[in-house]
Amino acid sequence: MSFTKEMTVKQVLDLNPKTAEVFRKLGMHCLGCPSAVGETVAGAARTHNLDLNLLLQELNGIEYGELSPEAMAEAMPEGAIIQKDKEHFAIVPHLPGGLVDPGTLRRIAEVAEKYGCAAIKLTSAQRLALVGLKKEDVPKAWEDLGMKPGAAHGNRVRNIKFCPGDAFCIRGEQDAINLGMALDARYHGMELPAKMKMAVSGCPRKCTDASSVDIGVVGTATGYMLLVGGCGGIKPRQGRMLAEGLSKEEVLGLVERIVGYFREHGELNERLGNHIVRVGWEAFKEAVLTKEA
Length: 293
Fold this sequence. Notes:
The protein is an alpha+beta fold. The chain contains twelve helices and nine strands. The strands form two sheets. A five-stranded mixed sheet has the order 5-6-7-8-9, covered by helices on one side. It is flat, with a radius of gyration of 21 Å. The mean pLDDT is 89.
């Protein structure tokens, strides 16, 4: 088959691992990074300032085969994010909602100290990033942590943010912790056509940025309100209210329909908000608010 500009780098690599040598030769060295391999070939060409026609010509011209030892040596360790110096890596243990017990916190600190991490970074996504690991130490660090590599990048559901809600916060109007944990257990790491972010806020103050994520849940005096299509980044978009006055069970059911719909109908690298713009608000509502959707 012929490789096209619409295919992702990962699809190309899966079909012919030897194409890694083409990407590497043309200057794309981050082939283990989920965000890089999740890009389309056209997107990768733009990101790395490559000639798209030349890239496609080279990809389609190389024989089928396995990675060379050189390409294997440059592969990114699983669950790692390359740093600015192109020599060190960061890993992000998965801590749902930023909740962590003292034992886990001590273990993270011990691993960071053992492998000489430059920093432990508290992130805006309620995660702890261990920054400055050597490549050969990444798998050992994950093993010592006793955790699977986190889903920090790529076209998948990212870490789900949630606040203390009515369990601890004086302003909390609804349970955010249990709902957030349920969403995290069901969706974290799930592969989708594009990345998806979710957040749960226990009150309308939205301290978890629930109005600027793909699916945001907001606690109110009368139940939960569900917002869709928001995002941050270079072109931020406010989420739009899809439903309100929902119970926890109704939220979980509606999120299930939204995610299922998006898995089937979303286009590659198209965020939920952009998808809604493309198909139209009324068509989207009809699709996901129907019980059988």
